[in-house]
Amino acid sequence: MDKHQTPGQIDFSSVLAAAVHDMKNSLCLLRQTIEQLARTVDPTNQKATAHLANAHYEAARLNTGLVQLLSLYRAEMENLPINVDEWFIEDVVEELISNNEVYIAHKNIAVTVDVEPHLSWFMDGDLVTLLLNDMLVNATRYASSEIRLHIYVDAGLLVIEIEDDGPGYPKNMLDATQIAMPEYDISKGRTGLGVFFARLIATAHSHGDKHGEIVLANGGSLGGSVFTLKLP
User: Fold this and answer.
1) 207 near 232, Cβ under 8 Å?
2) Of 34, 115, 180, 217, which shows the fewest CB atoms inside 10 Å?
3) What's the predicted TM-score (pTM) here?
C-alpha cells in the first residue's frame, strides 16, 4: 500500500490502469471483428467500405491512446522504461503493413517501402512499432492515394520517414515538436498526447550523448506530411 493511502481508500490510479488494460483487451477483439467483417464486404460497396475504414481508424486511435495511458502511468510521467534488443527493420515494417493492410486497402492507398536490406537496430521494438503504427494510421487517414516509407542509416542514426500526399500537418502539431519536454502541456487533447508520447519514445532511446528525436514537416517527395523518427 502506498504510504499516503489510508486503509480502505481506493487507489484510483491502479484501478484506472487495470480498467485501461481490460478495455485494451476488448478493443483488440473489436479490431479483429472489424477486420473479419471487412473481408466479407463487397469492395465495390463504397458506403460500406467507407464505414469500415472509419471504424478501423477510430479503433486504432483508441488502442494507441490506451497504450499511451498505460505507459505514462507506469513511467509516472517522468521517464519511459524501455527494453532494448536487436530488431530487424524489415520485420518491423512487415508487421506494420500487415497490421493495417485492411485499412490501407479500403482507403485504396498505395504504400511504397524503401528500406535498406538486412538492416537491424538496437531499440525497443514494441514501443517503436506502436509509435510508427500510429503515424501510419494517421498518414492513411489523410493521404489522397500514396504513402512512402523510407528507412536508412545516416550519420550513425536510424532514420525512419513516413510521407503522404495529403494536406500536411496542421500548425499546432508542427509547433508541438518545438516545445521543451518539461514545458509540454498534454492537456491539449489527443493531438497533444500523441506528439508528446512520440517524443517520449524517441528521447528514451539514447547512445552516449545522442538521443532520439522526431521531426514533423510538410512537403517532402509527396507534398504532404512528413514524419521522421531518428534513433541513435
Assistant:
1) yes
2) 180
3) 0.71
